[in-house]
Design goal:
Elements (H helix, E strand, L loop, with lengths): L3 E4 L3 H12 L4 E4 L15 E2 L12 H8 L7 E3 L5 H13 L2 H29 L10 E5 L2 H16 L4 E5 H7 L9 E5 L3 E2 L2 H14 L3 E3 L4 E7 L2 E7 L2 E3 L3 E4 L5 H7 L7 E11 L8 E4 L4 E6 L2 E10 L8 H14 L8 E11 L6 E4 L6 E5 L5 H16 L18
Parallel strand pairs: 1-2, 1-13, 2-9, 4-17, 5-15, 13-20
Antiparallel strand pairs: 3-8, 5-7, 6-7, 10-11, 11-12, 14-17, 14-18, 15-16, 16-17, 19-20
Bound molecules: flavin-adenine dinucleotide (FAD).
Length: 413
Amino acid sequence: MNDILIIGGGVIGVSTAYFLARKGVSVTLIEKGDVAAGSSYGNAGLVCPCHSVPLPAPGMLTQGIKWLFDPESPFYVKPRLDADLLAWLWRFRSFSNRQAFDRAVPLLRDLQRASLDLYQTIIERENLACYFEKSGGLMLYRTAAGFEHGQKETAVLQKHGLQMKVLTGDETRQMEPLVRPDVVGGIHYEEDAHLTPDLFVKGLAAAAQAQGANLLTQTELLDLAREGDRITAVTTTRGTFRPEQVVLAAGVWSSLLARQLGLKLPLQPAKGYSVTVKRPSLSPQTHLHLGEAKVVVTPMGPHLRFAGTLELAGYDLSINQRRVQAILRAADDYLTGMEEKEIVEIWRGLRPCSPDGLPYIGRSITYSNLIIAAGHAMLGLSLGPITGQLAAALVAGERPSLDLAAFDVERFG
Ligand SMILES: Cc1cc2nc3c(=O)[nH]c(=O)nc-3n(C[C@H](O)[C@H](O)[C@H](O)COP(=O)(O)OP(=O)(O)OC[C@H]3O[C@@H](n4cnc5c(N)ncnc54)[C@H](O)[C@@H]3O)c2cc1C
């Protein structure tokens, strides 16, 4: 008998397993591939309170429509007749306004700050080697229009108490000498940090195991049996479990698994790419956002990672080389000394995006022994530890440290 079964070995599932194991709870995690096989593997590695913005920001859809026919654009919706996508876009549209944005920012900010604190505690306590650096981040703009837009967004985020500073072009270059002379300005994201995501998740998984968690990789969930208001059995490729409670933390696939239970958990997969290169001799010292290009450049020990694009193209994991090349080229537009790139790995992953830009964290009303922790879009790494801690508190019947009403897992019916 396994008391708690977690589905999914990404940053959310592994963090939940870690906090449960620390409470002395008997917990098993199943993962269809390896730990950190999904979106948690090759992402940009940012832990970023200053980026506490939901995906459906004002003007986002208009911009998306402008980019629709550009094969190298950073945001793309693959046109197709898909009822789930159309319903999702319809809801997304209703949240793409200032009021919804202003409601979401403080909710995300509080999660992010709590998560950053937990990162620092866990990395120190477990001695995790993951190149964690709390050195802030730097947003760069090449165009006056981009810089103006960035300053407006910064003013809104500063009102919500986030520590960000607008810099002139020269101040930006003083902070990061590799910035090209034609960069017109920047924003210093003072609260932010970065790390190598798969090293963190794998290190945390080992720490969870050392504290008693049972981690079963290459074990895929096949079927969920239910009776009344309870999940009674979980059939996997390696046997059937009859857990007391189930935590669904399967990233974007959570939506498909929830459907098996008759639950609506709207999520669209948003594909992004990263290209990891050997760290060049001239390399940025902290992570950079290339504003107009929507690319992030993150130093990760011996490597430098370029990440970007957001493609709503379903669960398709194919690699579009034009977009990959566009990510690499963008770096040369903003930085000097980046010409030589010795590629170590090209990767893509699917961000789990909810229509309102908020994650699903909570106990199901329909199934009394189901907890869902999924849908963190482009902030899932950042929000991993706090989500794990909150999910573990729910499992243990404790009062969560933050109000979870806005993250209600059945808010879309
Ligand atoms: C290019 C890119 C850059 C990003 N940059 C950042 C960043 O800088 N900062 C940030 O905070 N976030 C970033 N993100 C987002 C972040 O990667 C995700 O939000 C986060 O990894 C989601 O974690 P998760 O645990 O929910 O999902 P995942 O990591 O996808 O884990 C879910 C796991 O569930 C498993 N699974 C699925 N179905 C089953 C099944 N039937 N049985 C068993 N196991 C199953 C999968 O194999 C997978 O390992 C980025 C994403 C991308 C694509």
